Amino acid sequence: MLRAHSTVRFEEETGDDGMKWLARTGGAATVIALAVGLAACTGSEDDVPEASAPIVQLGAPGEDNRTLSPEEAAELASPPHTAVDVDFVRDMLHHHTQAIQMTGYVPDRAGDEDVKLLAERMELSQTDEIVLLETWLRERGEPVRDPDADHADHAADMPGILTDAQLAQLEAASGDEFDRLFLEFMIFHHQGAIEMVHDLYDAGGGLETEIDRFALHVEADQDIEIKRMEQMLASLNG
């Protein structure tokens, strides 16, 4: 199952935004579970919950039928991935790789401890997501990199991708100047990732369960980080 193992969380800083993210991801399942529990406690004695019917896969001629596990049944319900999904995953791999390049400058150049902590969390989260995205491609028999595409030219057109000149400017900065540039560039970078998610759905992708789950995670998680970075930038400028 494709999901982020190291989700960046800003529990104390995000407030309502954090709660919105929780409700959009794991929180919804908690609310549903709680509602079911309350219904069970308050229902009458005649309210007996129905057992879920097993899903049986018919066997070929001469073969026995087979009862599917819940995991296998879920896979059957999920639409197959498409070329749009594959392009999105490959593009997001490149996008995450540049983000890690940017966070790699932080330990030796940043002056603000909050910027250092933020960058460390980003690097851990996006490194894990790179592994998950590469695994998703391999499990579906898709090359991790498109062998027929000039990816360097294509990457330059991705939303939120920094130019070589911008990366050089960031690498050359230090102290307060670096902190401001890093936050400004990373906000721009995150906004690009959210735009990529919107483009995925606009192109008819994101129907496969795992891609849909990942894309929604990217949108929610990076929106939270953008708000946090905007607060940090305002503090530095103030």
Describe the structure.
Residues 85-233 form the DUF305 domain. It comes from Microbacterium awajiense. This is DUF305 domain-containing protein. It is a single chain. A hairpin with an 8-residue loop joins β1 (56-57) and β2. This protein has helices spanning 11-14, 16-42, 70-77, 83-104, 106-109, 113-139, 151-156, 164-172, 175-202, 209-237; strands at 56-57, 66-67. The chain is built from ten helices and two strands. The chain has a two-stranded antiparallel sheet with strand order 1-2. The protein starts with 10 loop residues before the first helix and ends with a helix. The chain is mostly helical. α4 runs antiparallel to α6 and α4 packs antiparallel against α9. Helix content is 69%, strand content 2%. The protein has a domain at 79-237: Ferritin, core subunit, four-helix bundle (Ferritin, Up-down Bundle), CATH 1.20.1260.10. Residues 1-51 have low confidence and may be disordered.
Q: Strand percentage, roughly?
A: under 5%
- Characterize the biggest β-sheet: 2 strands, antiparallel
CATH topology of the domain at 79-237: Ferritin
CATH C-level class of the domain at 79-237 is Mainly Alpha
- Give the second-level CATH assignment, the architecture of the domain at 79-237: Up-down Bundle
What is the overall silhouette? elongated
Regions with little confidence, pLDDT below 50 for 5+ residues: 1-51
* Average pLDDT rating: 78
Instruction: Name the strands of the widest sheet in spatial order.
Output: 1-2
Write the H/E string, N to C.
Answer: HHEEHHHHHHHH
Termini gap: 44 Å
Q: State the share of residues found in helices, binned by percent.
A: 55-70%
Number of strands: 2
How many helical elements?
10
Radius of gyration: 22 Å
CATH superfamily of the domain at 79-237: Ferritin, core subunit, four-helix bundle
User: What would you call the structural class?
Assistant: mainly alpha
